[in-house]
Every structure is written in C-alpha cells, then in structure tokens.
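Thread: Newbie trying to understand structure tokens

Hi all, I'm a second-year student working on a class project, and my supervisor (Dr. K.) asked me to get a predicted structure for one chain before our next meeting. I've only ever worked with sequences, so writing a 3D structure as a token string is new to me. If someone could post the tokens and maybe explain what I'm looking at, I'd be very grateful. Here's the chain:
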Amino acid sequence: MKVLVLGGGGREAALVWKLHQSPRVSQVFCAPGNAGIAQHAKCVEADLKRPEKLAQLALELGIDLTICGPEVSLVAGAADAFARHRLKFVGPSRAAAQLEGSKVFSKEFMSRHHIPTAMFSVCDSVEAAEDILTNNFHGFPIVIKADGLAAGKGVVIAQDLAEARAAVQMMMVEKKLGEAGSRILLEECLTGHETSFLIFTDGRTIRPLPPARDYKRIFDHDEGPNTGGMGSVSAPGLLDEYLQGKLLRKIAEPTLAALQAEGIVYRGVLYIGLMLTEAGPRVLEYNVRLGDPETQVLLPRLKTDLVDICEAIADGTLDQLNIEWSDEAAVCVVMASGGYPNTYTPDQPISGLKDACQVSGVHVFHAGTSRDDLTGKYLTAGGRVLGVTATGQTVATARERAYTAVSKIQFSGQQFRQDIALE
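---
Reply by user tm_fold:
Sure, no problem. This is what the structure looks like when written as tokens:
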C-alpha cells in the first residue's frame, strides 16, 4: 500500500514515522515534507492550498490512502477534491472544516446547538469592537480571536483596555494576520484547567483518543504570546474516566449530532480544545485535524496499526475496530528558533541529533528543518524546529528523558520551555 501524508511539520513527521512502521505500507510519500521527514518518506513538492493539484498528485503517484495533516488544505476543500476522484482520504469536507476555518462559524454553531462555550461577540469593524470594549461587556482579561486561520497566532488574551485596543488594531487595521483578522471575536476569558480531547470519527462512530495537554504560550508558567504549541504531555491519568465519559456525552457526541443535523458528514479527527471550569467543561475551539504537538505524544502510545484506523475512518467502518493504546506516558518538548513566534533567523546548523536519539525512549520529530546539500547537516527552517519526544512508565520518567535529549541538541538562538509536564 502507498500512503500519502499532506503537510510538512512536526505532526506530519509523527504521522510518517508511525505509518512507516506498518507492515501494510510499502511506501510513504509526504507533500511537501521536510528534511527530517525524508528519513522515512519520499518528499514531493506540493501547494497545500490547491486541492485539485493535490488530488492529481495522488493519482500520479498511485496513492491508496491519503492522510491530511494541516487545516489549510481541509479548509481549501482537499477532502472534496479527493472524493471527486474517488480517492481514499482521511479528513473532513470543506463544509465541516469551517469549524476551524472560521472562529465565527464555530462559535455560532456552538450557540445554535447549545454546546457549552464562552460568551462572545462578533465584530465586523473596529467601531463595533470599541463599543464592546469600552462598555466592558465581557470584562477583563478578554480573549480576542481572529476569525480566519492564523497558524496558531490569532488569539490574544488582553489584560486591560489598552492591550485589547492594540490587538484589535493589529488584526483589523494593520492586517498583520491578513484576511484572517477582517472579522474578530471578543470572548470572556475562561479560567480553569485547559486540556485537549480528540476523537476519531467516520461520521457515525466515535473513538476517543487518550487525553493530552499542550502548552501554547512561548514562556514558562504560561507567559508571553501564544504559539502553535511549545510542548505536550499524554498519560493514562491525565483525565479521570468519569470526566472523559462526560466529555464524550456532553461535548463530542452532541457536536457530531449537530453536524449531522446540518447535513455535514464528518470523517477524520476532531480536536476539541477545552477549559475545565468550576461550572463544567467549556469548548475553547475546534480543530479539524490532529493537534500539533499533541500528535507527537499520542502516536507513540498507539498500539493499533494507524493504517487500519485511517481506512476505517475513510470507509465508514470505525464501529468494527477496537483501538488499543499503551499505558506509557509521553512528553514532547518543542525546540524553537530565537524570536519565535515573531521574526527569527533560519539556516542555523543543528548539532547533537544523533546523541539525543540515543536516549532511551526518545524520538526527535523534525518540524522546521532543511538539509545542507554539501555538508549533509540539518539546519533550522522554521519557528518550531524540533519536537523532542520521550516515552516512559511515568510522566516524570518521560519528562526526564525528553529534557536529557534536549540538552544534547544545539543551534544558535534555540529556545524551549523548562516546565513542560511539570504539573
């Protein structure tokens, strides 16, 4: 079987690594991939925003199964393009991908179907935002979200009126997030314990993934601006079974039923970002694909063949599959370029990768790397460069192994959080 993975970051590196282990897979392709992914897959050039071209690529390569990593391809309609060519594909349709592609659609969807979330206001202009802010409708701190896709950078938690006005200015006037900030959401700021709840679904059956938590802020103690994710942890005791059951009954199942009620068939992975408040769980956001860096801690715990799961999702036979997970814990520490999530300098040589990979239970997933054709050395090529992941019998063991591996890797300007999986 030939499998194609769409994307080129740390999530896709983990997917390729896992697929490469399947006895059913003869060859893995990745479009566009990265230098580290090329260890396990043939990387091919592709424009992830052009669904029809992606489908044509799959036809040319004789692909049997395609798994979509990034949301940008799903929002552009990749699933629909592959369906037109009767190609097996894992990922929701363009209609379903609006859950992530438009924060406004997502919040209004939750409101229509009484799915618990934060209070919010939709703003189509600076004047509308100013009116809500000056009247202190949602209080402070307040969450300001760009409507469209912003690569994890479209959320600002403003502590006061001045910060809120600056965020509105940045999104709606300066257009630093492009068209993503043409409309914005103003939301009450929820407090509690943040967690990620992911499910596999073929549109009818739900199979939950183990609980995972990611760390979005750039600095320790959840300080500084939001990022795409600076680390993650997954372990059997992260959420108790009663709470997991409640999230399934009160959040995941109603979401799937609501999609069905609107005539939308959802096939793929649904990521539900949650805040566990004193009043109960509240949905912060939906993502329509595997999380990054949650994927890097979830797939090392997966015992069932990933190909079997993906085929069941695509074929609508998930009810016939029992998915098994290990009892190990997994911790991922993201090593990022200096200056991320703002400007950073690429092409910095990376050393120590082999030594890091020799630490027991460790695998290093490349997120943003390239390779020097002359020296063969890996170079930085993105904001998030590496996801250093370790497994262990306990969170403490996995954490120690991950940070031991991190200490062996060096590149100019490197930054990483010291507190991943401490709590």
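A couple of things are worth pointing out once you decode it. The chain has a mean pLDDT of 96. The chain is about 30% helix and 25% strand. Feel free to ask follow-ups in this thread.
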